[in-house]
Structure formats: C-alpha cells, structure tokens
Design brief:
- Keywords: Hydrolase.
- GO terms for molecular function: hydrolase activity.
- This is Alpha/beta hydrolase.
- This protein has eleven helices and eight strands.
- By secondary structure, the chain is an alpha/beta fold.
- It has a single domain, classed as Alpha/Beta hydrolase fold, catalytic domain (Rossmann fold).
- The chain has an eight-stranded mixed beta sheet, with helices on both faces.
- The radius of gyration is 17 Å and the shape is globular.
- The model has no long low-confidence stretch (mean pLDDT 97).
C-alpha cells in the first residue's frame, strides 16, 4: 500500500501493481467497501497491466471526511491521484457506486479515459424515494454503526450460495468502513444526476458486467444500457449477485482481460 496527499489535505491510500510502462487500469470500488474488493483483479492483471486501486475518501485507509461527499469530489480525487502518479490516460473500471463515480469521471475528464468498464451499476438519476432512503440510511449508520446494516444486506451484495470466504470478506469490508465516510457518500449519491445522455455519446469502447442474481442493478437495466451505448459489450455472470468480481472472479477476470486486450 502507498498513499498520496491531495491538494485539499485528504490522503488517498492505494495499491499499484504491474509494469509502470503498461496500460494503466484504474479500479474504483463501491459502497461500503475498500480497495481490497479488487484483490482478485490486481492479482490477475498485474503481469500485463499497470493496475491502480485506490481507497475512496471516507473508506479503507484513506482520510475520512464527514458531511456530504458528492460524486464529483470522488472523481476529482481520482484525477488528482493519477496526476501525482504521472498517469494521463487510462482504462477506468467501476463497480456499483464506483461505476457512478466512473461516469462522473467521463463527464469531467472523459478525454483521459481510453475505455470504460461499468459493473453492477446504474446511470439513472436518483429518485425522490431514493433520496429519502439514502439520507435516512446515512443517519442510521451514524446511529447504529455498520454491523447491523452489513448483516442485513450481505446476501444482497453477494449471493447466499457464494463461497464462505467471499461472504466473510464482504462482511468484513462493510463492518470496517467508517460510518462518517459511508454517510457522506450516501448523502452525495442522493443528488446524483442522469448519466444516460452522456453515455449514449461515449466515444470509447465499454464493457458492461452484471451478476445474473443482482437485485440492486438487475440484468434488464444492464441490457438497456448496452442497447443505448454505441460501442459496448455485455457480460452476464451466472451465479453472482452485486459483486461478481469477488463471487465469480475467474469469469469476471476473463471478460475483463478479453476486453482490455481488444479495446
């Protein structure tokens, strides 16, 4: 693990593996996780790609910032980190909330992105009901801590039949997240815009991945996005829910490597 100090004083922890002169691949985790979500991908891609996996602000070993963290703040953190690492152009991979951060990166500095991977995520704007739910959940996490929520949603994040070690890893990440950081992200996501018009004009190749059993972002939503994107491939991962990169890493890595080789 390394870390970088951003201009606003936030310290971002990250892993960077693989040849420094290879194609950069940036992995953005979702909520409420950390960069260890990507452990199978770092191991699989390291021989041939320069892979960078940060902890978002508020998560993992990065600085916890209370209040509200909008998606554009997360996106600008990614850009600042990559500037410090001397990475100008890169492939961007995001899962769940990380996918929405990736879409915000496309909006803010799309010219730096050479290819895009969106896994188990939604480009639609937040609904009124969703805004209320996220704000209420933020307050609940601050009041109760992370464990009750982690216990409640574990088998929505990963399928009940997934490997015990995967379930343990996911539960551990959720419980280890600081409630202040998680609450700040929830408040920020409550205000997310509609990324669909932006993505229909995406000028680079895109890979869409979704777990066949994902209840948060169902296959039908990924299919609709696939139909709207000009240069996209859709991969449905059987036997996986919301985190196919951990639940079915061989299938996920095969699709990702194939896309990276062809993009």
């Amino acid at each position: 693990m390394a870390d970088a100090l951003l201009p606003d004083g936030v310290r971002i922890a990250y892993d960077a593996v693989g040849p420094s002169d290879a194609t950069p691949v940036v992995l953005i985790h979702g909520h409420p996780f950390d960069r260890t979500l990507w452990a199978p991908q770092l191991a699989a891609l390291a021989p041939d790609f320069h892979v960078i996996a940060p902890d978002l602000r508020g998560y993992g070993a990065s600085t916890v910032v209370p209040g509200t963290t909008p998606l554009d703040v997360f996106a600008r953190d990614i850009a600042s980190l990559l500037d410090r690492l001397g990475v100008r152009r890169f492939v961007l991979v995001g899962i769940s909330m990380g996918g929405q951060i990736a879409m915000e990166c496309v909006r803010l500095f799309g010219d730096r992105i050479t290819a895009l991977v969106l896994a188990d995520t939604s480009p639609a704007p937040e609904t009124d009901e969703g805004r209320s739910w996220r704000r209420a959940l933020a307050e609940r996490l601050l009041r109760e801590g992370m464990k009750p929520y982690a216990d409640e949603v574990l088998h929505q994040m990963v399928a009940p039949h997934s490997a015990p070690e995967v379930q343990d890893h996911v539960h551990r990440m959720m419980c280890g997240t600081d409630p202040e950081g998680a609450a700040a992200a929830l408040r920020g996501r409550a205000e997310r815009p509609d990324y669909r018009p932006l993505l229909t004009r995406l000028p680079v190749p895109a890979l869409l991945v979704v777990g066949a059993e994902d209840a948060y972002t169902p296959v039908a939503e990924a299919e609709a996005l696939h139909a709207a994107l000009p240069q996209s491939t859709l991969q449905v991962i059987e036997g996986a829910a919301h985190l196919p990169n951990l639940e079915r890493p061989q299938e996920f890595n095969a699709a990702l490597r194939r896309f990276l080789t062809e993009a």
